[in-house]
Amino acid sequence: MNYFPDEVIEHVFDFVTSHKDRNSISLVCKSWFKIERYSRQNVFIGNCYSISPERLLRRFPCFKSLTLKGKPHFADFNLVPHGWGGFVQPWIEALARSRVGLEELRLKRMVVTDEGLELLSRSFVNFKSLVLVSCEGFSTDGLASIASNCRHLRDLDLQENEIDDHRGQWLSCFPETYTSLVTLNFACLEGETNLVALERLVARSPNLRSLKLNRAVPLDALARLMACAPQIVDLGVGSYEDEQDSESCLKLQAAIRKCTSLRSLSGFLEAAPHCLSAFHPVCHNLTSLNLSYAAEIHGSHLIKLIEHCKKLQRLWILDSIGDKGLEVVASTCKELQELRVFPTDLHGGGNTAVTEDGLVAISAGCPKLHSILYFCQQMTNAALITVARNCPNFIRFRLCILEPHKPDHVTSQPLDEGFGAIVQACKNLKRLSVSGLLTDQVFLYIGMFATQLEMLSIAFAGDTDKGMLYVLNGCKKMRKLEIRDSPFGDAALLADVNKYETMRSLWMSSCEVTLGGCKRLARKAPWLNVEIINENDNNRMEENGYEGRQKVDNKLYLYRTVVGTRVDAPPFVWIL
Amino acid sequence: MENSNSYSPYSSSSVDSTKPSPSESSVNLSLSLTFPSTSSQRETSQDWPPIKPRLRDTLKSLRLRLRQRGYNTALFVKVYMEGVPIGRKLDLSTFSGYKSLLENLSHMFDTSVICGTRDRKHHVLTYQDKDGDWMMVGDIPWDMFLETVRRLKITRPERC
């Protein structure tokens, strides 16, 4: 390859798009490192505190797309206090100062501000795509800046963000001459929507492929929107009130029939029980269905809909579908690859909506299944062993038994053997979440068999430090380990400090690690940021010279970094 | 740390980090396979089960809406009598108010159960609210009580 001019090598590199592969390429030789540097288009940073924007720009001066992730995963479940960090402002400012031609920004679990969005909208002439997932800190004013200033915007995708809705006119801020919209997702906005502005925007967007509405968009508006955009591929329905007048329903049905390109359906945020039947005509083409917010729709209506969806590849649903409903899925959706079943009853009310039977049925009926997230009240080892035998192709397997420490409900044994069977059979398993009554034994299995495992979530499991040690020693590809309410302590934490250099991060909350242990770790590994988070404390721990033997109260979050201690930590975060 | 060879029926993990419930931990440990104080913390807390805030809010408002419309959404809570390790489960949505609740409990536990201030003679009913605090039953309106109650405990006469 050394005999080819750089441009040729660069052209070859253009075909290599995965981050891992490009990272590997850059390690081959100095020449390749240089060529790869200047030609990298998409940069992915899994932890915004692992590197600084300045160093990023020094290494990759020409990128067009940046993906940044901030808070750790458990922030999704209220375990990270407000104000912890993940601020995107310094990144936007640094990028704006440089001459990078940013076209796409994808943020996950970060704090974004209206000022930041305004700066973003003014700094990059060719900015095309903004994707914000589980972010917070901004309002519809920020969206108004994006709409007003980004002449070439294609995608505005807001997924599950906390947005302060000022009920302003952000939708009418898109200029009348603006026609390049491809993706518009504002399902997470809580306030009123300017329906007239929305309809006009959709009507002048011939390239619109994905439209996800919020709950303020009623049925008749939906019908008009769909009539304007029959080319739509991905639709998120907003509000769907009880039996509207028959004329609205007819109009909607007529509009739906024309949407022959529709492949993905979601939303139904306030959905009346009988509304799904209008969508039956398009079901045979659907590949993705997300009904996880349609809490009021009865299982029987869900089943009637799914019976028509023979091509479904992805299904997100509530457990109100029941085991019987999952059996229908298993016999109908032979192309199913990903299934998520969310709980409707959070307090263990006693109604067993889905059980191990539903999971077994799916595993038996859907040969292409590779990703599952399953919430249930009960499980057995026998069922898990059967699932493992039926489906050795799992890449992601997440099982959440709602009651912590719950054993196999038939044998009263721990679920070690069941999960053991899963990791042994599924040689490509990259992500695993375990639950129920579990001893150190399950971690022995995980360490032994889960050779490709990159992310592991543990809650209320294990007996001793040995459990955590099995995982740290065995899973060579581990990147993210998150543990809560499990009896792992200093011995496990400190056994192999260098392991953390190969991982993105470790989270341990309500475990047995002590302050002294964490301090020792921080001393041994200066390239780690070791954070103690306690929202009730505000650094009193530090002032009072807490005893080293004191248990960490109550969260430990550590991650590798090349830029040392972060300067934006709030008082309740103590970085050792 | 509990025994390390065979599995311990109760992980000792969360003992220190949960608010200790004085009578609970000593009474229920022997037979229960879960750690009552832990699981109740989880039941009341905002961080378990691991679902995103949006879904959590959706489910909460759903229950409220259904109840407002008169649908019978079951509300099973655990009921323990102090001194008795094995509890019962009760569907609070079947009662019209405190009076019928007390009548039913008195019948279930074969003793006189009352609300209100301490009494040397009677068993007093207490409840754990969604913040994890133990409170006297009867102070707040019944509907509000249904929203916040997580479990019930019938105390021994002298304790309160």
Automatic annotation (TrEMBL), chain A:
Transmembrane feature ranges: none
**UniProt xrefs under CDD domains:** F-box_AtTIR1-like (cd22159)
- Which UniProt keywords are present, listed alphabetically? Auxin signaling pathway
User: Pfam families per the record?
Assistant: F-box_5, LRR_6, Transp_inhibit
- Read off the InterPro entries from this record: COI1_F-box, F-box_dom, Leu-rich_rpt, Leu-rich_rpt_Cys-con_subtyp, LRR_dom_sf, Transp_inhibit
Domain F-box, which positions? 4-45
Q: What is this protein called?
A: F-box domain-containing protein
- What species does this protein belong to? Brassica napus (Rape)
Automatic annotation (TrEMBL), chain B:
Domain of life of the organism encoding this protein: Eukaryota
Q: What is its main location?
A: nucleus
Keywords assigned by UniProt, alphabetized: Auxin signaling pathway, Nucleus, Repressor, Transcription, Transcription regulation
Would the keyword Nucleotide-binding be found if you checked this record's keyword annotation? no
Q: Where is the PB1 domain?
A: 74-159
Positions of region (Disordered)? 1-52
Q: Which SUPFAM superfamilies match?
A: CAD & PB1 domains (SSF54277)
Q: Which PANTHER family match?
A: AUXIN-RESPONSIVE PROTEIN IAA17, AUXIN-RESPONSIVE PROTEIN IAA31
**Descriptive protein name:** Auxin-responsive protein
Organism this protein belongs to: Brassica napus (Rape)
